[in-house]
Design a protein that fits this description.
mainly alpha, single chain, two-stranded antiparallel ribbon, 2 domains, two-stranded antiparallel sheet, Hypothetical protein af1432
């Protein structure tokens, strides 16, 4: 019997071999179609086995060579898409896939192929929702969900992942979760029309800040007129920087004037910014970020999503950001 990874198994549409658990009991047979339920069964086993196949000596690759090739590929992917999170419950292949697909979608959108970009973003949304369902029982810490890399490429993805987990915690239905995930992926879409590259929000000039504060308005317009999505989705782009006490922007609205979806994504957006060093707060780990959310409290965020988020996973996540990097 030889060990087989869950990633190898779920990459197949039809199982090519009998599958056994650690006791030697057969759990799936060769030829079975890998439905979502069977994929979940596979994910729930830490170790799986298949019977060793006889092969010619020349067909076998030494383990050291295979490991070397795998590491070389990971290094190449890190150069292209940014660091991998070694503590994540999202496997390396999926981390790379999400980041590469999102970067490609942005590139296509910038080339004005809007319909194709929209289809790509919808595929990313569906993958995030599907994978979140598969891993949610095994996730204990926020650090186990975080994608690493350039902020503009990972922030929408992280916000969407956190938002899907929070929407499930708040018991939204399937259609609402799809809308929330898509809203999160697109909440910063207005930034792609900003002139110049703003690398440090805390050190913007007055002119840069004035331009930056237009991105919710630009995003709302893009989502409505170019992507042709609903007002529910567009309103999140418009309102994700508004605050419950009316101190946010662009309009300074407050309380129930802010949509429910925007209230959810505002929490996830700010949390990811803090854990990406994209604020002027000195945050070194995930517990400190949660503490900062609580300090901002209901003045800034709607109490229901705020406290659900804080208590969604373990509060004792002292993992530093440097510890995550592969």
């Amino acid at each position: 019997m030889i060990v087989v990874s869950s990633e190898e198994i779920i990459s197949q549409k039809v199982l090519p071999y009998d599958l056994y658990d650690e006791t030697g009991a057969k759990i799936l047979e060769a030829g079975e179609i890998l439905t979502p339920g069977k994929i979940l069964l596979v994910r729930n086993h830490e170790v799986l086995y298949k019977k060793e196949e006889k092969s010619k000596p020349e067909d076998k690759q030494p383990l050291s060579e295979a490991k070397s090739e795998s590491n070389a590929q990971n290094v190449e992917n890190i150069k292209k898409y940014g660091p991998l999170n070694k503590k994540s419950k999202i496997d390396f292949e999926t981390q790379i896939e999400l980041k590469s697909h999102y970067m490609n979608a942005l590139s296509v959108f910038n080339q004005n192929d809007v319909s194709r970009a929209k289809a790509m973003i919808l595929e990313i949304r569906d993958k995030i929702i599907k994978d979140s369902q598969l891993i949610k029982k095994n996730v204990q810490f926020f650090s186990e969900l975080k994608l690493l890399g350039e902020h503009k490429n990972t922030h929408p993805l992280n916000t969407a992942i956190f938002s899907v987990f929070l929407a499930n915690k708040l018991e939204y239905n399937e259609v609402q979760i799809m809308e929330i995930a898509l809203s999160a992926l697109l909440h910063d879409i207005g930034k792609i029309k900003l002139t110049g590259e703003i690398t440090d929000i805390s050190k913007m000039t007055k002119d840069e800040e004035a331009a930056y504060r237009k991105h919710p308005l630009v995003g709302h317009r893009l989502i409505k007129t170019e992507l042709k999505l609903s007002e529910n989705i567009a309103r999140v782009a418009l309102q994700h920087h508004e605050r419950m006490d009316g101190t946010g922007w662009p309009y300074g609205i407050s309380s129930t004037m802010i949509s429910e979806y925007a209230q959810i994504i505002a929490v996830c957006n700010h949390f990811d910014n803090m854990t990406s060093s994209a604020t002027n707060l000195e945050i070194s780990n995930f517990r400190e970020a949660l503490r900062a959310l609580l300090k901002a409290g209901s003045r800034a965020f709607s109490p229901k999503p705020l406290y659900a988020f804080v208590h969604m996973l373990s509060y004792g996540d002292t993992t530093s950001f440097e510890e995550l990097k592969f």
